[in-house]
């Protein structure tokens, strides 16, 4: 380090289905599913890069700490893919309809260090999605605690006359929500009296960040013995899971180099205290695209969380083959976004957690 080297071969651009254009041919209509479940539509230039669309969405949401967020789309292989913000959208989507999801890409290890409540609120929405989809497993106790903070954020102080006994029916906070769980949430909700929505959301995030799978991007793979595993990329490094249990962890400072070749992904590890030589560990992914996707995810997470600023293509060395991928993470790093102080009054915004989950009409419309 200080940075992980990331060698990789070239790969031809993928093609997808047909783009839907508005009349005139100069603009295309993009539809984005936001984290509150609503659909935002906007015309964009057909030659626009991904970052232009992300900026429009963040402006619509009044978000300034936008570096933690990005857009996903479903490619022609039915795989959810992050939009490359540096490239023209049409070259990535091909002729497909421009339908995206706005999501958290980089989960901050310490949400309290985010500068604005509106950013933390969007992170709460993402974590709720992760919990409801099963991506972020929780125990009964944790479901109850997190649900109680969401209730406080959305509904305010518990009022027996206003809320009654069934007031949580419209608030979804767990994938298998039961009367027993709702009763526990109501019991805990009563203890949060006096907390503002922003305070309740911060408590929610402070507890969510402790969950084992918080911010972990999982990729199915096989180890050197052909055993099925999951590789997880997160702020702290690369994690290895087998049967839902973490069996290994490679922190970014321990990793010297990441690379992929065909369907194989490799990490070169620093020698330990009593070791003399570096070691290379290999994993087999489903195919070349999956290996490259994992490699790119590692490059982006390492750069965002570990480096003060992104590496530039001019910093190429003998470790990078001439025909290797030129991909680098080009956005701001976490260090840079924290250094960029926001100077504005706290923006007003609507909290729509209850509205979102009292209606499922938007489900399945996008991606």
Structural class: alpha+beta
Question: Under the CATH scheme, which architecture of the largest domain would be assigned?
Answer: Roll
Work out the count of structural domains: 3
The average pLDDT is: 86
Main sheet properties:
5 strands, mixed
- CATH fold-level assignment of the largest domain: PH-domain like
Number of helices: 10
From the N-terminal CA to the C-terminal CA, the straight-line distance is 37 Å
Order of helices and strands: EEEHEEHEHHHHHEEEEEEEHHH
State which percent range the strand residues make up: 15-25%
What oligomeric arrangement do these chains adopt? single chain
Radius of gyration equals 22 Å
The CATH class name of the largest domain reads: Mainly Beta
Q: Tell me, briefly, the overall form.
A: globular
Spans where pLDDT lies below 50 across 5 or more residues? 10-24, 316-324, 354-367
By CATH, the superfamily of the largest domain comes out as Pleckstrin-homology domain (PH domain)/Phosphotyrosine-binding domain (PTB)
Placed side by side, the strands forming the largest sheet appear as 3-2-6-4-5
Subcellular location: Cell junction, Adherens junction; Cell projection, Rhabdomere
Organism: Darwinula stevensoni
Main location: other
Keywords: Cell junction, Phosphoprotein
What does this structure look like?
Helix 3 crosses helix 7 (197-208) and helix 4 packs across helix 6 (179-189). The protein has 3 domains: 27-105, Roll (Ubiquitin-like (UB roll)); 111-208, Acyl-CoA Binding Protein; 217-337, PH-domain like, CATH 2.30.29.30. The chain is built from 10 helices and 13 strands. The chain is globular, with a radius of gyration of 22 Å. It has helices at residues 50-61, 89-93, 117-133, 140-155, 160-163, 179-189, 197-208, 288-306, 334-339, 353-358; strands at residues 5-7, 27-33, 39-45, 69-74, 80-82, 98-104, 217-222, 228-234, 237-242, 245-251, 255-261, 264-269, 279-284. The protein is of the alpha+beta class. Helices cover 29% and strands 21% of the residues. A 5-stranded mixed sheet has the order 3-2-6-4-5. It has a 4-stranded mixed sheet with strand order 1-11-12-13, with helices on one face. It has a 4-stranded antiparallel sheet with strand order 7-8-9-10. Strand 11 (255-261) and strand 12 form a beta hairpin. One of its GO terms (biological process) is actomyosin structure organization. Its main location: other. Keywords: Cell junction, Phosphoprotein. Residues 28-309 form the FERM domain. InterPro entries: Band_41_domain, Ez/rad/moesin-like, FA, FERM/acyl-CoA-bd_prot_sf, FERM_2, FERM_central, FERM_CS, FERM_domain.
